[in-house]
Structures are given as C-alpha cells and as structure tokens.
Amino acid sequence: MIKEIEVKSVLNKTKKRDAWFLDDYTFNPYQSCSYNCLYCYIRGSKYGSNLATSLSVKVNAIELLEKQLKKRAEKGEYGFIVLSSVTDPYINIEEEYQLTRKALEVILKYKFPVHIITKSTMVERDFDILKEIHQQAILPKDLQQKLSGGTLLTFSFSTVDDAIGKIFEPGAPRPSQRIEALQKAIQAGFHSGVSMMPLLPFITDTTAHLEKLFNTFKNCGANYVMPATLTVFGNGKADSKVLMLNAIKKHFPELEARYLKYFSNSHQLPEYYRNAFYLKMKELSKTYNIKDRII
Fold this sequence. Notes:
Layout lengths: L2 E3 L5 E3 L11 E3 L2 E2 L24 E3 L2 H14 L6 E3 L10 H4 L1 H11 L4 E5 L8 H10 L14 E6 L5 H7 L6 H13 L3 E9 L7 H14 L4 E5 L10 H12 L4 H8 L7 H18 L7
Parallel strand pairs: 1-5, 3-6, 6-7, 7-8, 8-9, 9-10
Antiparallel strand pairs: 2-3, 4-5
C-alpha cells in the first residue's frame, strides 16, 4: 500500500553544488521507488528489498515547496533544483498524484531552473512546463554564460540492452523506451544527456557494450554522458550488494567469481579498475566528441 505522509521540509539546500549534477537544491516528492533497480544505493537503507512496497507520498510537498521557494526567491537565492536525488520523480504513482508536475508549476512561478534525472518516459508529459522553465528561469550568475536555458533533462542508463535492463532494473521503463524519450527531449530543444550510472563490470562496461552506448547516444544527439562504475551498499539481506551478487550468480554465473573477488569485502571496485575505467571513459568521450559533464 502507498503511504501518505506529511513532512516538515521538502526543498533541501546542498552544501556545495555537485560538478556533475549542478544541484543547488534537491526536491523529492516521494520516498522509495517502484523501479526496484538492484544496484540502487537506497538498498542499504530502511526501505528493504522491494522498494515498491515502501512507497510514500509527501502529501504536503507542494504547499511546503511554495513557501520555501517564495522565501528563496525573495532573497534572490536562485539555483538549480534537482528532481529527484533519492528517487525518480516519475515513478508509477506520479500518474495518480502528479506531485512532480505540480512542483514544476511552482518552480516555474518562482523562476527557478530545474534538472530532471529520470529513467521514465513520463517526463514527456511535462515538456510544456519544462519549455517555459527553460525560457523563464533565472540562472545562477556563474552559469548564465554556460547554459542556454533553465531546464536540464538527464536520462539514466546502465545499459541500452532491454534484456539486461530487465534483470537489473525490473520495474523501470525499458532502455529502448528511454532512448526514444531522450531523442524527443533533444528534438524539443532541451539541453539533454545521459547518466551512465552505474555501468556494470564485465557486462555493460566491456569495450563492445561501451561502443554501443556511446554510438547510440551520439546518434541521439546527446549533449553529454556522465559515466560511473558500480558501487554496492549495505551488509544486510536486502541491500544492493546481496541483490547484485544473487543476480550475477543466477544470470551471469561465469562472472560470479570475479564479483565475489571485488565486492565480498568492499563496496567498490579496486582503485586500479576505477582508474582504468575513467581513463577509458575520457577516451570514448573524446572519440565520440561528447562531453563527460553537463558543462
């Protein structure tokens, strides 16, 4: 069952803007997620193995957002609001509650820029509001010469293979559907790109799969790709480490020994692997002439 809750605050000011996501603020109208991605870092939290069963709706989110944004606007404290930082803003229950759309209407009213990060095609529904935000938002002074407007749309991928996506992202829209949504966002004139986080060792970070990823996003016209490798969290029965290792054992048994070697006693890959990974990403970004950052 979906739980309806009231919270005391919904707009969170970040201590420092992240160089990847440009987040001055974050806003999350929902708690937990219906996509159930096995690698999700939230797996190490209280929400458990099936994130869809712990969904919560912040029913007073829009009222609070209105109050908080009004105060920030009066002080001229404009900055990018990331939707969302701990769950997808377009999870399935958004169709019923429409808190993300209502939030965008408030954000437009106070002329704040937004960065949408999603695995969903539902963002297409809100292109009308996002176009207005793109045109009317007041950008932070240090970004005014670097961006053409106030809307950023980032689509999240760990693969472009639907079969692999079904294993590791069982509740999310298929990668092929996301590719179409990315194309539509670019055609609509948004500054749009890809969060390739996480790429899965020996599965989607192979040379062949990486070439397929970069070639796909280059053909889409993506403005940027932001790659990161796998990190797993927690030590319980339902965390991302356990779920990922179980999935590897079931679907990729030939890789089980490698995953156990790297992740049995660590939440991340060895430093030499990570260094080689990011060096390869830099090379591919240069080869395909796609930025590895938004700006």
